[in-house]
Design goal:
The complex is a heterodimer of chains A (496) and B (102). Chain A has 496 residues and is mainly alpha-helical. Chain A has 21 helices and two strands. In chain A, helix 15 runs antiparallel to helix 18. In chain B, helix 1 packs antiparallel against helix 2. The radius of gyration of chain B is 17 Å and the shape is elongated. The chains are: A mainly alpha (496), B mainly alpha (102). At the A-B interface, helix 7 and helix 8 of A face helix 2 and helix 3 of B.
Chain lengths: 496, 102
């Protein structure tokens, strides 16, 4: 028991869980809430920074659950990078939601519901379960719990369209998990283990593996809103409360893609000669084009951002076929590219959603054509949109540029230039919808009668996230050096 | 190939599970009524657990039971959540109990 509590990485899960418990009484008191949340966030950030300092351990963390049951936590570079992203976005979202004077002064009606706080911490805990999961059962539990918490959070907004969007999302996520569960059962029936590392070592191309892997990929694709299974996403993101949209777009979508990535590294190499890599890459490319085109046509701000998420998820999938190369150095480059894209998009999308929330507060409307004149009143908010936009477009210097550069190098290195063309076209398309937004905001128009200023803390947290996409574009080594040559997974998993 | 390696009673489970999954999914896709959709999901879910037992059995291990048990717990949580959402939806818009579609 004592040895278990000494495992630093376990606290990535335990701390948010305890924080969720502590948030139940805290959320009742408007005076204690900011202090309590601030303290919890400080502790969490300190823990993650300490783990980052320690680097990647040589062996995964193991926790003895029973006489013959050992639970392994996957503490490799990808897990650590995603834990860092979770901490950054989570901290910014919670600060943005509750640690400012307006939140304390808000009437009970417009304030964030008290249930938001424990749910947000629970969401962050399940995300860390997913990053650290080294076997199919842990990943299943993580993905499933994440789905349920995410659905409940979308329904926190007391509006008909939010409840309807939450229901559709619930059915999508449940069907996705069922497919995953049956796939896991199939693989266990054939290989007799659920540990990803053992599976990766023993995998061969045969019927049961293809069926199980296919079911898992399809189920996760539905949860990650991969084109053409993205139908539930725009309504859910546009109708949820703002902090919920931020967490969902920046982190929850990533979790399903991350589990796909873990499985891809374990199982896809034996299917490298089939049509599977082309199919996944092709879906990614279609998502980029379709998502960007739909984003261009939206008249509502949050819908534009939601469609942009569909497009940006496509970039992650384009990396999947590029991972299946024999050249280990090239494979490392592509893996770094995919993870950097997750970080870049997570930060930029969170900043963009927060800035959108400020524009909605300011103009009292979610319509893009109502943005006229905001450029004069909210320079910091628009600078945030500009910086985040640069990263989404993949222009230097930004984290998005580093990600796309790594992916492009992988595409050229393995001679698959077609994916390079998609990367470039996607960058141009995102530039059009971001610039359309900015042009409308800087256009001068008739003065509005009603204009509310968002609080300073809100503006600064969103700007910090956008600034981080710039900083991570200038200094990529601290994060990238966490990813060594991709071993599919370290040894371990649940060994019965 | 999977089928022929199985013990006979697992084959029965497999066929029953696959049939029920098909029935559940058909019901799920054909109805827009949200309560029926939830019931159809339940049939699919229970059948999927049957499939897991049929496919993952055969090893002397607690893992298949663990998978199914987790699946059942999740099903319970999901049902509670879905019913809560359905009630919320009905309170907000008393006459709309069907999915308006995309």
């Amino acid at each position: 028991m004592i040895q278990m509590l000494l495992t630093g990485h376990l606290w990535l899960i335990l701390l948010p869980l305890l924080a969720a418990l502590a948030s139940v009484p805290l959320a009742r008191s408007r005076t204690l809430l900011p202090w309590g949340q601030g303290l919890l966030l400080l502790g969490w950030n300190a823990l993650v920074l300490w783990l980052w300092q320690g680097g990647v351990p040589d062996t995964p963390a193991t926790i003895t659950l029973g006489a013959s049951l050992v639970w392994t936590l996957q503490t490799d570079g990808p897990a650590l990078i995603m834990a860092l992203l979770t901490t950054w976005v989570g901290t910014a979202t919670l600060v943005h939601t509750g640690l400012h004077r307006r939140a304390a002064a808000m009437s009970a009606k417009e304030a964030t519901p008290a249930a938001f706080w424990p749910m947000a911490w629970l969401l962050l805990a399940t995300l860390n379960v997913i990053w650290l999961g080294a076997d199919l059962l842990t990943l299943y539990i993580g993905v499933e719990a994440l789905g349920l918490v995410a659905v409940a959070m979308i329904a926190l907004n007391n509006k008909t369209e939010a409840v309807q969007a939450a229901l559709r999302y619930l059915f999508a996520t449940l069907l996705g998990s069922l497919a995953y569960l049956v796939g896991a059962g199939l693989l266990f029936g054939h290989y007799g283990t659920l540990a990803l590392a053992t599976l990766a070592a023993e995998v061969t191309a045969n019927g049961p593996t293809a069926a199980g892997f296919g079911l898992m990929l399809a189920g996760l694709a539905l949860k990650a809103a991969v084109f053409p299974l993205h139908g539930w996403l725009p309504a859910a993101h546009a109708s949820a409360l703002l902090p919920v949209s931020v967490l969902h777009a920046a982190l929850v979508i990533k979790a399903s893609v991350f589990v796909m990535l873990r499985h891809w590294l374990a199982f896809a190499p034996v299917f490298a000669d089939t049509l599977l890599p082309l199919l996944v890459g092709g879906l990614g490319a279609t998502a980029i084009l379709w998502g960007s085109i739909m984003a261009l046509q939206q008249t509502r701000l949050k819908m534009l951002i939601a469609w942009s998420t569909v497009a940006q998820t496509g970039y992650l999938l384009i990396g999947f076929p590029l991972l299946l190369t024999d050249d280990a150095a090239l494979q490392q480059l592509v893996l770094q590219g995919i993870l950097y894209q997750m970080v870049a998009h997570g930060l930029a999308k969170a900043a963009l959603f927060m800035a959108a929330g400020q524009l909605v507060t300011a103009t009292g409307s979610d319509r893009i054509d109502q943005l006229t004149g905001t450029g004069r009143h909210l320079p910091l908010t628009l600078l945030t949109i500009g910086l985040a936009g640069v990263s989404l477009m993949g222009m230097p210097p930004s984290a998005g540029f580093v990600a796309k550069w790594l992916l492009a190098s992988g595409a050229i290195g393995s001679g698959q230039v077609i994916w390079l063309v998609v990367l470039l076209a996607g960058g141009l398309l995102s530039a059009t919808y971001i610039l359309r937004l900015l042009r409308q905001a800087f256009r001068e128009g008739p003065e509005q009668d009603v204009f509310h200023h968002p609080s300073r803390v809100e503006k600064i947290t969103a700007f910090m996230l956008a600034l981080m996409t710039l900083l991570l574009g200038l200094m990529a080594i601290p994060l990238l050096s966490l990813i060594d040559l991709p071993t599919a997974v370290q040894a371990g998993g649940i060994a019965p | 190939m999977i089928f022929t390696d199985m013990p006979p009673d697992a084959r029965v489970w497999l066929i029953a599970g696959a049939g029920l999954v098909l029935i559940g999914l058909t019901g799920f896709l054909l109805t827009r009524d949200l309560v029926r959709r939830l019931l159809a999901f339940h049939i699919t879910g229970s059948a999927a657990l049957l499939l897991v037992l049929a496919l993952a059995g055969g090893h002397d291990s607690p893992v298949p039971a663990l998978l199914v048990f987790t699946g059942m717990l999740v099903g319970l949580g999901a049902t509670l959540l879905a019913l809560w959402l359905l009630r919320r939806g009905q309170q907000l818009a008393p006459h709309a109990d069907a999915d308006p579609g995309p």
